Amino acid sequence: MAWGNNENKLKACQACRALIPANATSCESCGAAGHYAASEGSLTDSLAWLGEWPVTMILMTLNLAVYAWVLIYQMQFPGDGKGFAFEPIDFPDVLGAFGSVSAPAVRRSGEWWRLLSYAFLHGGVLHIGMNTYGLLQAGRMAEELWGRTQYFVLYVLSGIGGGWLIVATNSRAVGASGALFGVIAGLWAHTYRRDNVLGKGFQQFMMMWLLYGVAMSFNPRVSWQGHLGGALVGAVLAFLMPAEDIYRQSMLRVRLTRIAAALCLLAVLITFGLMARNLGKARESFTLQENTKRLLTLTLNVETLNEEVSLALQAKQPGLIPSDEVQDFPRDFAARFGSLPDKISDEKINQVLAKNYQVACSDEGVIERLPLVDAEFGLIRDSMRTALQKVCTKPAFTAQELAAAKDVPTYDLTGAFRRDFLAYWQWLEKRAAQRQQSLEEVLPELKVNVVREYVASLQRTSAPPVR
Question: Taking the model in full, what pTM does it have?
């Protein structure tokens, strides 16, 4: 198919591959007749309302636009504060929200729209770059060979075929390569039926693409299921679809193809509508997961710091060590400080403590960046920020301060912070109940059972006044 204005455009003769005007209905070189004339596309093209835009260009633009949409959407979940990223982030699962295909999502949740949505998503710059290049090469040839309507049907159905095999094999994937390999396999199947030298040469060219896809499928990050499913559907459809010049001669075939194209277009529109709706549902879940992950990491770091300060003070005042911990104390101390308590200097203790203060307090603004969910969470967030500021006011201790503990078995820096995290967990359970979901459903990417055990340990821990 000619691209852009058909005046002064050329196309290749399907018989001898000589260049002829895009509007020609016969070849000036070999005399072959019946060539698809671009100016007559409106007679047989159910996508004529697109004007002169080729379907291949529209598909490439759509893939790039969705990729940009993913990157912009994920900016509201900055993760570790790295800002804008050129690839989809793993936590939270942004691609899952946009519509990556997987067996649990399709079978258990009934989200069948994912069988097509995954074909418009990509996992990185290299991924979308390679698929865009392949679509540019193979798509243009397929669009000229079959016309926009048949080509669009083959592309969409091949994508669905790839998604179906991904689900059938209990795997997960994103990418347009399933649909792309349907196009490539379709071109190979079409040329397989041609006995002339040109057909065999073109067949060898398509075979190189297929072999490349097979080789790439051995990469564990590449979905061979998507490639294979798309290729099988594309090859079968290509055996059923004639070239555009023959296709125009059968009005029944034209009508059936136009109906198929309309249904495929409707499927694409519905898919994007459901994708947008799913993103709205996923936003709060992502926010809760992001907040929980950051607060959990921060709490673990602060608790670790608290334990090490307590061990350091007990080393200087052995009488403070609880009787049931005396036997294990040297081992626990050496594990934290790299030396036995009676052989370590105050300077070394301060070096270790200063290092762990840096870990716990390196990003005091992390709480400020937590997205606000509601007023109750805002109060908890403000209280945790105040508690963290108190914890992080002293990066090290003098020798006198290390020997100053007299009456308490632990030097508790984190009592208020611990209580605030427990309050956050209770708020999270209430929020899940309001959504009529379990915590496992609200936080699907966190090991909720492990976090529950940690929360229980915090609840059992006494919280003496902060010194």
Answer: 0.70
